[in-house]
Amino acid sequence: MAARHRVWQIVAASLSVGSGCPRTLLVHRHTGFVRVQGSRFLSSVPRDVVSSEEKRKEVLAATTGLAQGDKFGMDRCFTSADLSAYVKLCGDTNPIHSCESTAQSAGFRGRVVHGMLYAGLFPAIIGSQFAGAVYVSQSLQFRAPLLVGEPVCAEVEVTGITKLRHHYRVTFATSCCKKGEGSALLCGEAVALLPITDPSS
């Protein structure tokens, strides 16, 4: 019996159930199933036990290590060499990225970094933070240009977590801004599938 209970992790105690008797909410370390101590195993939190959004978030935070509002970031400064390498890979030869005078004629102060180059910082952050993550979607809204040599800070913020059968579907608010400035150059939303892992490992 003792060996059986070692695979369960306490995520909430003293919950009011039914008549108001205190119970303990447990999460199975291997399956992610949730149960109330003394009740049958369940694949989701029972409504009469944990009906509030706060308790749902508490369970997800315990099983994923994530909570809404968690932020992850990366700083980068793109050089002329970075843009040349990107052009060789993607074939975008628009001269506003390579020619100073063309960029200025188009209304920019200097050569512009490819938008998709610094948008690539979002999957870089998510992929490096969560091994095995699968990118599902990414929306982008470009608000201002980033010039060659300007330092940029990219950030992703957890805005939603949903447990699926084999993954967690996590939504992130994504944004880029010039380092030291508050206004966003680029914003959007990313969705990724994160693998369910054993929290004890």
Compressed to H and E, one letter per element, the order equals HEEEHEHHHHEEEE
Largest sheet: 5 strands, antiparallel
Q: Do you know the CATH architecture of the largest domain?
A: Roll
Shape: elongated
Rg is: 23 Å
**Average pLDDT reading:** 79
> So how many helices?
6
The class by helix and strand makeup works out as: alpha+beta
For the largest sheet, list the strands in their spatial order: 4-6-7-8-5
Number of individual domains: 2
Count every beta strand, where a strand is a DSSP E run of 2 or more residues: 8
CATH class division of the largest domain = Alpha Beta
Distance between the termini: 22 Å
CATH-defined superfamily of the largest domain: Hotdog Thioesterase
Summarize the amount of helix as a percent range: 10-25%
Q: What name does CATH use for the topology of the largest domain?
A: Thiol Ester Dehydrase, Chain A
Low-confidence stretches: 1-5, 11-23, 38-51
The proportion of residues in beta strands is: 35-45%
Describe this structure in words.
The chain is built from 6 helices and 8 strands; from the N terminus they run αβββαβααααββββ. It is an alpha+beta fold. It has 2 domains: 2-64, no CATH class; 71-79 and 112-195, Hotdog Thioesterase (Thiol Ester Dehydrase, Chain A). It starts with a helix and ends in a 6-residue tail after the last strand. InterPro entries: HotDog_dom_sf, MaoC-like_dom, UPF0336/Enoyl-CoA_hydratase. This is MaoC-like domain-containing protein. Residues 75-168 form the MaoC-like domain. Pfam families: MaoC_dehydratas.
